[in-house]
Structure formats: structure tokens, C-alpha cells
Amino acid sequence: MEMNFLAIVVAAIVPLVIGAIWYNPKVLGTAWMKASGMTEEKMKGANMGVIFGVTLVLSFLLAMTVNGMVIHQISASQIVYPNMEAETYKAFMAEFGNAHRNFRHGALHGAIGAIFFVLPVLGINALFERKGWKYILINVGYWVVTLAIMGSILCGWK
Q: Residues 95-154: pLDDT tens digits?
């Protein structure tokens, strides 16, 4: 099974786009700033070029990971690799190659990944950082939406 690198690149842009909306002061940005202890002064002192550049690289890595999480057929190809010409693999892919390959299924698995992976990781960090539940829910909500959209793109774009 070949990876759709164009879908991965498009999915990698999603965290930046959703973040621009989600953390906008007119949406949840003001509440996030208050919950996180962020100030306008701290925001102005940042090198946004570096932040956005590194974010894009990390988002690309994330998109590659989410790709494997939402497309189940990748697991089948990993089992038989490097013998991708095996008759059993060809038969499996002929019958199930596009099973569950749609936008809705990708969104579901992206959201599940956020709830069962991102929530515990961010939640644990936030608790030790003495952040409140508002902070956790704002950030996890962002990742549920973001990973659902990324998963949707990656799984549905054949």
C-alpha cells in the first residue's frame, strides 16, 4: 500500500489552520491565554517564524503517524513487507483494499486517537504544571477537532 504524500502534506497544514481559528481571541484564545497564564507581552516576544516552521515539521510527522492510525490496510502491508507480491496479500487487498476508507471513518479514528492518546498525555502534563481543567479541555478540544480533520483527509483521500 502506497502512502498518499499529497494528503499527508495537506493534513500537516491542518493544525496551523485549526489553531489559527481555535486560539483566535474571538473563539477560545482569550480563555486559553487566561487558563495558561499567557500574556500579550509573552506573545510579542516570540520568534513566530521559528514557531510556525517547527510546528509545520512536527505536524508533518504527526500526519504520517495519523495516516497509519486511520488506514487499517497499512497494517496488512506491514505484516507481509517486503513480500508485497504474496498471493494472500494481493487477495486480501483485492477484497478489503478500500474497506473503511472514507472521510467519516478517518474522522472517527482521529478523534479516538485524540481522546485516548492526547487527553492522557496533555492531562498528565497539565496536572503537574498546575493547570486547570479549562486549560486541558481547550487544548484537548483543539486536538480532537484537528486530528479528526487530519484523519478524515488521510483516510478519505484515496
A: 777 778 899 999 999 999 999 999 999 999 999 999 999 999 999 999 999 999 999 999
Task: Check if the beta carbon of residue 114 is closer than 8 Å to that of residue 70.
Answer: no
CA 155/CA 158 separation, integer angstroms:
7
Long-range CB pairs of 62-66, under 8 A, 24+ apart, other chains included: 62/12, 62/15, 62/150, 63/8, 63/9, 63/11, 63/12, 63/14, 63/150, 63/154, 64/3, 64/8, 66/11, 66/110, 66/113, 66/147, 66/150, 66/151, 66/154
- Secondary element (H or E) of residue 56: helix 48-70
Question: Domain residue spans in the chain?
Answer: 5-156
Q: Would you tell me how many other CB atoms lie within 10 Å of the CB of residue 77?
A: 15
pLDDT, tens digit, for every residue of 40-56? 999 888 899 999 999 99
Distance set, CA 17 to CA 62, 75, 89, 110, 145 (Å): 15, 30, 38, 17, 11
94/58 Cα distance (integer angstroms): 34
Q: Which three cell numbers stand for residue 33?
A: 491565554
